[in-house]
């Protein structure tokens, strides 16, 4: 770690060599034969028209490359992947490039096989001046065997971020992978959420290894002898910076039951290296953002820079990863998560660690662990891993205390400093939202004389106590003796110089890098990249422009430097502090960010705390977590490859379903405040289901997307009403676009296609629905019921009587004389007779039954409510069905005009806004019975659970079909919304409304992304291609079931317009309102008597490492 621990890098006396001439080796590939499980020979894909954007001078020195080499064509060819050094293509021999295969845990779950999906290692080189060996690697140079569904490319945006931060961390003295060069691939366009320019970073590290213990020890860490000796005692682990004891690989040390062999020493060394690195992260406010096990280096290096960030306003709960809703990788949890990863590493080495002195026993090597040895082996491994945890903690604290002491200007650490200086300072920074790194830099330049008197501290009363403690410790530490005496100016100047040497004036914050990316990518600038790299490599300077560096006058931009090292823009401050507060910090009083007039701090205006009333509780609402929780559960069901959700039932069998509204309504969160947010999103699904009958999952996904962006923008200071106006204007534009492009459903095949898609690709359900609708008509009644067999059945009500006569009576019929004329007419015409009356009994009923039994007359009597008017003749119908529950009259032979008039009358009442939903439902049933037929679909299955799940899909399919018939169809799979997003270009009245439009534009791409993601593919890649390459083809979409780009209409992948329209309107309405919500009120829980205290349980290992900080 010579170079990583010493930003000064290699010796200036070594002039360096060209890339062609620097020493090269391929120890990795020569030591390890390649096969399906180990690193694979892999050449880069040569890019067209590469342009070298930037080179790190520090990286050039540390690799031993001669200055000026970056200006040669050979250099460009190598760093862009167009030329392989050491490989003879004609002879097919020499050193070859490779990619690694490995597995790991991601977000706490085993992710299976991973691997270098876009990283290709070229060779290893050792700098003769330092003796440090590095492995050079291209990132973004094309496909590897482990690219899975990705393209092996990197975009310019992320490449700039990695290029700058790698070298910035090195300059701060933080162990890290490095970056030599950044190359723009001008002929390469990379599909992400949009089409972006591609780029390649040539990065290097002492090792990119993530596995293989023996190779790591012998080839990377300098041999087994360089590893640490045993722990001094289990109770007091070693805190030495270099714990090496020079033990031979075969030697065993340690107490009985915890004997340490070479693999135990290797494990402890990896843990120690990582403990020192994470301590440096914490001291400098750096957050990786994605600390999965595959991003934890065996060398303790900072590696794989995705959503990283340097802290702006100090917030220990801050995470730069917007997908990390549980804060797993937040600033405060980084020490814990690195240890969690190391425990997983220990488990992988567990058998070797636990073998102790027997690790080289020939019987063990050949046969492995015998059953009688397992208990002893496991016990030894667990004990060593636990002791290593204590060593990890001790190493972390030692390094953290050392750095924090230096940052505060202290030459020596005292035990009381942690509680009296470090912790109180972090609390104050959090409370007053002070800029983390700027505070230390400005404190460095603050003369102690300004803090000597109470009068001078009066304006800083809010932290005067801490400042007073700090001043006294500085005076004691710098040898003034009396803490009340003044520190001589010369010593104070030395203190200032020492503090500035460890407190950077510049760190590449996210907003700075965003500006650099915009200027390089959009505006074609190149010098800005050189300037930001120069500042990153020299972070401790007061200024840069016009100063000499290594004897060369540096031409910088003073105005740019002042802005990048000044106060964080208000928009950025608000976005981090307030948005993150709303998402995760419910219950703490709000405080306004301090103005920046004072070099250290300023007065803080605080608002009143929210209080509790006698009957209710008032609290700031942390809504991001509950919204994400519900939406994640619902969105997993979306698309042809969506998953089922198992729901517990309070009685009976559990329910398995993919129905979005059922899943949403089943979710109840324990926290009452969070449950409010979840129920509001569930209301979106319910409202969409009520109106359209389907599309509830899409509506939930849309609601989450709109809500999350609304929260961020409101927190950043946007006018919530203008934001909402922009959202609604965009939704109106999208709906209008969809209505223009919809097409009517015309064939039974299209009906089946709509039903099939809504039933999650079940063609059987689609055909059954289409068959039923064909028989009963578009306005007919189709009912889905649970069957009693294993098969699904469509039961169309069959005719009981052919062309019967109908006698209607508003009165009760008892006397036979009242029905004799009707009986005679029925006999003479040889037509069945149906009697519908208030009631029928006595002689009249007896005569009917007798004639029916004798076969002389087909007659049925139906008891019904009274009728208006008096019938003056017998009515007639085509057919009639009478059961115990229902009487259904089909093909009535009355006046067609009168029937049509009655249907139009019903439709008019349904269109009246004052008609309730219940009344509309009943009127729709009446309309269906007047104008169509009736069918019953009985759902079969082998169990109650299966029948329930299938019935949900039948109902969804039926509702979607009705919606499609009513308003028409669109290309499905989220395609129509994608095409609407591509054309959305309305110009609202102001900037905040424009942000609302942007929120909708982004949100309506999310359903398609979720569908593709559930199919195991990269949603952003597919969506980007559809919006760019196929933007002009409205019907072109992606069939996630087959993984093909197809004409969605021709392929039968359809969405009803009514479903899409309703889901979008409901989602935008609720989500935009919810996004402006800050306070919630719930009923206060009644306090019951306290229950008996439970047992202590187990500690469960190191836990959260909360005692570290």
From TrEMBL:
MF terms from GO for this chain are: ATP binding; ATP-dependent protein folding chaperone; metal ion binding; nucleotidyltransferase activity
Q: Does the keyword Transferase apply?
A: yes
Composition bias, Pro residues: 40-49
> What keywords would UniProt list here?
ATP-binding, Chaperone, Magnesium, Metal-binding, Nucleotide-binding, Nucleotidyltransferase, Transferase
One Gene Ontology BP term is: protein refolding
Output the SUPFAM superfamilies linked to this UniProt entry.
GroEL apical domain-like, GroEL equatorial domain-like, GroEL-intermediate domain like
What top-level branch of life does the organism fall under? Answer: Eukaryota
InterPro entries, sorted: Chaperone_TCP-1, Chaperonin_Cpn60_CS, Cpn60/GroEL, Cpn60/GroEL/TCP-1, GroEL-like_apical_dom_sf, GROEL-like_equatorial_sf, SelO, TCP-1-like_intermed_sf
- Ranges for the region named Disordered are 33-54, 231-256
Cofactor section: Mg(2+)
Family recorded in the similarity comment: Belongs to the TCP-1 chaperonin family. Belongs to the chaperonin (HSP60) family.
Protein's recorded name? Selenoprotein O
